[in-house]
Amino acid sequence: MINLHRLFYAVRPDLTARLMAIDALQRQVDVRHLEGRRVRPENLHITLHWLGDYKDMPHELLCRAKEAGGSVEMASFGVGFDRIGSFGGAGKGGLVLTGGVELKRLRQLQRALATEMEVSGIGHHIRKPFNPHVSLLYCDEHVGREPIAPIRWRVDELLLIDSLLGRGTHVNLGQWPLQSRQMGFSDW
User: ω into residue 41 within 30 of 0, thus cis?
Assistant: First the structure.
């Protein structure tokens, strides 16, 4: 069976951050003579939870995923990635952005979404552990992680994405602004 759809929740960098990520990637490609498949700039993202690969999109899962995504209540926040290198250990290739302290709120968003996924009945898709990264290049070479000038942006929305496998195309199936719930009189 051929899987045509990859369904996942994600956040995306803004245009400035995408340009900075592409520049950081190009410097590594030039210095290390790396070859491989680059992630299209418009497809750069951080996966929060992967919901699976499917030949046909499961309607029930899609409805529950939209319900969970639309239920997340969290204010927008900033993130920063300050390292570039391979994600896996020795022998594993690919080039990703990673970070540290500036990803605390991103981890909180991932946990808040996991809570809503449980409530919506799709908790079996919760991703543990969560190691935030932005994939830039798929290649065979292993590149040790090294510091770079931080690439920062403001996360202001949560996305549900259908990646059309083999086509390099992402389709937004859900998009929710991050905002805190306003207090009502019952909250006083």
Answer: no
Determine phi and psi for 96, rounding to 5 degrees: -135, 160
Distances (CA, A) of 187 to 70, 181, 183, 184: 21, 11, 6, 5
Token reading at 5 = 């759809």
Domains of the chain: 5-187 (3.90.1140.10)
The rounded percent of the chain whose pLDDT value lies above 70 is 92
What gap in Å lies between CA 98 and CA 117, rounded to an integer? 25
Partners of 184 in the β-ladder: none
Model pTM greater than 0.85? yes
101: left (phi over 0), alpha (psi -120 to 50) or beta: alpha
